[in-house]
């Protein structure tokens, strides 16, 4: 396919429109650790998007393949304009850098092609910058600051590689898309609750650190645990618990972590030699409560990686733009709202599991395990570049460094014989 004419946008521009009433929940205030009242809401600058388009759908593979092909053409046609790293621009500014910005925004379609000329940062440019920021998971300020400049200056070839690598990671997937399913896009650090093809609730999340990454997982959510205990994994006993106890012998008591032997009998921490690794031979279990590492809600999803989704007492981390702080599991903001959505249709002693029912059960402080009436498919994906059904490309930083510069070649998107609605990407040969 020949390169697109310079007079037309090469990538379709996003359409900014408000979601239908009730289609997307605004970012709600997370409950406080003690369940009494609420903490401060997540700042608007990092509130999650209300875009109803899911990150991962049955057509994501082929859509992303086509976008990778398009960006390859852009790269082969020549570089797009770059801005000086120190650029700071806002509405009303004028000059040659604004002129370069207008041309740059038009190349991906964020600014209509017939408005690419000029050197004024006018309302059209403000809208275009917000569109660009939305596609890159940046706060939609409409002003150009360091992070927006950094994203604008990423070469088209790098964007092609992000899309190609993301498509490769979907190859061989046979995820069971249903009427209701859940998606965690790890680079975005967000959770999407999807129903009938639309995101009905989207949540800020905290995902794995670079040295303790969240894995890619496809499974089903089977249960919601209220007031859970936390059994410390052996890896964390070695990496975290033992060093903490060595520096503070009262650490386990402060954190309400008990040591249990093979018969379930509690052991006095002072009887263990903490200069060794002997603690890994015991079960370390944290009591339910406000300081429990899982918070007040855990979402069960059986998988070989032994990861899950949960609440957290460290809710301040949800307010950060970069949220890669966990040891692999996914912490969900306003997890009670998420649990309410998951438990819809699951009976309770009082009839159902509306949010007040969940909060009342948590207030008892008793552990309660609630099995979903119907398990819900969940996918943890790692998409640094993906395209939605409307052909719009979205990008996130490759925090884990999985987008190899020399990625394996993909089939030609123009001749690939895969239905656009297929939920099965072709397996590698």
From TrEMBL:
Any Gene Ontology biological process: cell wall organization
Sorted UniProt keywords: Cell shape, Cell wall biogenesis/degradation, Peptidoglycan synthesis, Transferase
Pathway this chain belongs to: Cell wall biogenesis; peptidoglycan biosynthesis
Active-site residues per Swiss-Prot or TrEMBL entry: 310, 329
Domain L,D-TPase catalytic: 180-351
Segments of this protein annotated with the region Disordered: 1-41
PANTHER family attached to this UniProt entry: L,D-TRANSPEPTIDASE HI_1667-RELATED, L,D-TRANSPEPTIDASE YCBB-RELATED
Name under which the protein is recorded: Putative peptidoglycan binding protein
Source organism of the structure: Microvirga subterranea
């Amino acid at each position: 396919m020949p390169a697109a004419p310079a007079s037309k946008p090469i990538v379709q521009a996003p359409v900014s429109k408000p979601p239908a009433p009730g289609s997307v929940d605004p970012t709600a205030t997370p409950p406080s650790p003690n369940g009494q009242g609420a903490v401060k809401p997540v700042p608007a600058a990092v509130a999650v998007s209300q875009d109803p388009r899911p990150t991962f759908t049955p057509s994501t593979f082929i859509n992303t393949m086509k976008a990778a092909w398009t960006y390859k053409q852009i790269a082969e046609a020549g570089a797009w304009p770059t801005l000086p790293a120190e650029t700071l621009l806002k509405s009303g500014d004028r000059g040659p850098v604004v002129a370069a910005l207008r041309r740059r925004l038009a190349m991906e379609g964020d600014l209509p092609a017939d408005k690419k000329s000029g050197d004024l940062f006018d309302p059209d440019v403000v809208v275009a910058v917000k569109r660009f920021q939305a596609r890159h998971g940046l706060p939609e300020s409409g002003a150009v600051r360091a992070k927006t400049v950094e994203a604008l200056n990423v070469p088209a070839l790098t964007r092609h590689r992000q899309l190609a690598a993301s498509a490769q990671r979907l190859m061989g997937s046979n995820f069971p898309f249903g009427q209701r399913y859940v998606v965690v896009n790890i680079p975005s650090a967000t959770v999407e609750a999807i129903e009938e093809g639309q995101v009905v609730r989207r949540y800020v999340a905290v995902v794995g650190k670079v040295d303790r990454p969240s894995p890619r997982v496809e499974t089903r959510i089977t249960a919601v645990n209220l007031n859970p205990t936390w059994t410390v994994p052996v890896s964390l006993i070695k990496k975290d618990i033992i060093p903490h106890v060595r520096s503070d012998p009262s650490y386990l008591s402060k954190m309400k972590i008990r040591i249990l032997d093979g018969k379930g009998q509690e052991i006095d921490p002072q009887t263990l030699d903490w200069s060794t690794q002997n603690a890994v031979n015991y079960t370390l279990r944290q009591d339910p409560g406000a300081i429990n590492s899982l918070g007040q809600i855990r979402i069960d999803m059986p998988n070989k990686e032994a990861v899950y989704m949960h609440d957290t007492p460290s809710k301040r981390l949800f307010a950060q733009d970069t949220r890669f702080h966990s040891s692999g599991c996914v912490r969900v903001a306003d997890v009670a709202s998420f649990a309410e959505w998951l438990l819809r249709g699951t009976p309770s002693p009082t009839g159902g599991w509306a949010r007040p029912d969940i909060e009342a059960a948590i207030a008892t402080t008793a552990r309660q395990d609630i099995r979903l009436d119907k398990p819900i498919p969940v996918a943890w994906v790692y998409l640094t570049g993906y395209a939605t059904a409307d052909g719009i490309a979205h990008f996130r930083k490759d925090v884990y460094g999985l987008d190899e510069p020399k990625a394996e070649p993909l089939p030609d998107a123009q001749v690939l014989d895969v239905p656009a609605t297929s939920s099965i990407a072709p397996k590698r040969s």
